[in-house]
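Schema walkthrough. Field components (list of strings):
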Amino acid sequence: MSEVVKTSAPVSEGAHIAHPHEQAHEHHHETFVSKYIFSMDHKTIGKQFLITGIVWAIIGGLFSVLFRLQLGYPEESFPILETFFGEWAKGGQIQPEFYYGLVTIHGTVLVFFVLTAGLSGTFANLLIPLQVGARDMASPFLNMLSYWFFFLAGVVMLSSIFVHTGPASGGWTMYPPLSALRQAGDGQKLGADLWLISMSLFIISSLLGGLNYIATILNMRTKGMSMTRLPLPIWAMFFTAVLGVLSFPVLLSGAILLLCDRNLGTSFYLSDIVVNGEILPNEGGSAILYQHLFWFLGHPEVYIILLPAMGMVSEILSVNSRKPIFGYMAMLGSLFAICILAFLVWAHHMFVTGLNPFLGSVFVLLTLLIAVPSAIKVFNWITTIWRGNIRFTPATLFAIGFVSLFISGGLTGIFLGNSTIDIHLHDTMFVVAHFHIVMGVASFFGMFAGVYHWFPKMFGRYLNNTMAYMHFWVTMIGSYLIFWPMHYQGLAGVPRRYLDKRGWVSFNDFADLDKMITVVSIVVFAAQLLFVFNFFYSIFKGRKVRTANPWGANTLEWTTPIRPGHGNWEGDIPEVHRWPYDYGKDGREFIPQTEPVSAQETKSH
Amino acid sequence: MDKMNMSMTNKMEQKRMHPHKFTLWVAIGSLLMMFAGLTSAFIVKSNQVNWKPVAMPLWFTASTILMLLSSGTMQLALKSFRERVMRNYRLWMWVTLVLGVGFVACQWIGFQELWSNQVTFQGAGAGQFLYVIFGLHALHVIAGVIVLLVMAIRSFVGSVKSYNTIPVEIAATYWHFVDLLWIYLFVFFWVVGGGQ
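Field assembly_structure (string):
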């Protein structure tokens, strides 16, 4: 066991001189607090991210059910809502301010807390050291801080829901001038400040995490693990971290300026404003400036959410179709291209904000270019499972579901990427449908695939398959039933973020469709609760994992003990001799990365 | 760098940068993006109507000199540490620390002078950006001062001596970064901010 310290990291000699007692206390004396709460073990931190993410997903999902109730049944009254939310749901009907609060918190929580922290926080932490062959992250301490900053951000966000004037209600984008002015509404008071503080803490958390992910991938790979032998999830996490590290600080600068405008009376975003007859002294500010700063993060953020899902899906599809990934280098190239393009398309969110039309056309071109790497990836996923010996595990199903959703949602992106069509479609339900399918639900599918696939590694037990299949089919069919009709609504001009559309005769055709969407979203939400039940039940009561490598996979995490301790491998870290996708080669079902290449082997990678 | 004692056998080990050092470089890239965001916001806004330039007080020139000096003393501290002359190391750490505090003090007095010259949060112009950008930079200097303080105290206490140069090298790199960042911001406000 003393190996753990000896080979733990390329620590220089001095560090050992400094801590002569380290060896003695590294493994034992692990109290409950140091093992489960302030843990520096990347696996435990990953689980912390996942479980916190699940809690936030329940809150964010529940909020969507609440505002779907309003959208589906605007005339109905639900007394139970008043019981829980008091004056925010007076007479059992969701009040306008509360509706905006619900939409804002739903978006913020799901985009940042669930699909950024819960997804890449979980799997980057769990998989990077295990798959590159490292004892832990480059800096376990920063890694722990990363989780606790996230936790703190969550506490601040949660407390904003209990503020008397309500949570932030400026939408997840928090556009000024409304979000910069307290007078603009109840949700722009304390709730908005708490939102900004929470997001700042969250940004610090992601930066600390991202630094670690990059340093670990580039610096702590085991012997033989060249960059082109890395499993694809690691490449995806790498590009995700690069995107985060370069774009989140820009959002931070935008948030700081907004906080100044709100609290110090500066005019970064404000100019010539009259609120309720009162003329404000602010001059010379530009609200568009905030949009630039926001979307410079906001667009890469889409890929921060999506890339980890893409990486895990690539791995899961290859493992479970017992075939090598098709086009490994093409997968890398397309990840790289997406990463670069992600920084060059942010203004396609601003086509109708008065952007110079010529500039708009440049952004149209760059936006549509993303179709090329995306198509390469889709092609490669399909050719990977093509004529494969597919094992339809829940993880595989969710991975295939991801590909399906990514295609459907990606196609509508071609509509929205055109600045002229955007004049009609912007701010309609079409946009809502597009990004929910391609970014929201698709990434959730990637996340579920990852959870089902790596749950045995995380907890040494399996999830229940029956519940998993029910979860998959309800979610798969339900997602299409919820979001597909929204495209029609959007094409007909139904705006997003509207509380009650009964006043518009032209939208009255959609009342029944809205009811259907609401009912299905309640069913889908219930299916997610089934997953949550399965998750927690299986941690304690699930079927035990008996073999170290239950899926017959090649990657390094399956060479660790079934329940690995801090340090991951009991002896030396294994050496890597080949790429991770030698499936169905030379008549063998799979060849782990740790197996040396024999002389007779056919040459492949 | 310690490439001088690189032999053929440990070439592979030496080629990889220490992960903590590497992490710092990535963090520097990240911080640069934040300040790039702020200074490009400055440029975008400076083209708008009612833009008022800001005249920088002499205090910022004084703080620049202190900052440059502190980079030199930090380098001397690192050199002393490498040569294991702990007395000099401590001395130079304290000098750097004092210069860092002096820098922040100069910034603060400079802010006050600006404020009394009617450069406030009212209206529009370069002044508001100056407070935010210089303020954020000063926060990073203060963070560096705290790190130096911890390291300086650490070199006095404890029964076991550490000759591991990595922490000192990381602190030095960070300090030089904060220095160079300040030079960039200073020149930026002179040139683009119309600072005369």
